[in-house]
Amino acid sequence: MSLRGALLEYLGAEAGITALVSGRIYWKRRPQGSGLPALLCSRITGGYGHLLDGGSGHAQPLVQISVLALSNTAAEAVAEAVREAMQGFAGDWSGTLVTSVLLRNEIDLDDPDQVGGDVGTHEIALDYEIQHAVSVPTP
Question: Is the entire prediction scored with pTM above 0.85?
Fold first, then answer.
């Protein structure tokens, strides 16, 4: 399974997260009309470890998990549930060996209402470096 699929499956199995977002956990795009709060995941950067003679068998992409909610209080509660599940994790995600998960950045990115009101979407973006095992290419 890809890291993308493994991450979505892991987040969807965490009771503290699903109690707040139900099954609203997506990769890159949130379906139109889907409810909030929700999680939106995307890869910011990729990266693979190298040795002098080739790949090291490890990757360390930076993945952003954005929390979208109708209030800042709800966004903060979901962000905290994600942090508790992710920060410092090491173990197996559906066959993907994760060696380290590090929170690198946290950003508030509120989106104002389209008609200029004060009702908009509150967003907290959490950037995680996820170090995990990958196959070593053979030249």
Answer: yes
- Provide the 3-class DSSP secondary structure of residue 61: coil
Cα–Cα–Cα angle for 68, 71, 72, rounded to 5 degrees? 85
Phi, psi of 89 (to 5 degrees): -65, 140
**What confidence tier does 119 reach under pLDDT thresholds 50, 70, 90?**
low
* C-alpha to C-alpha distance for 26 and 123, rounded to whole angstroms: 15
The reply to whether omega before 37 is within 30° of 0 (cis) is yes
Q: How far apart are the first and last CA of the chain?
A: 23
CB contact at 8 A, 48 and 106: no
CA angle 51, 5, 75 (to 5 degrees): 105
For 35, list phi and psi in degrees, rounded to 5.
-75, 170
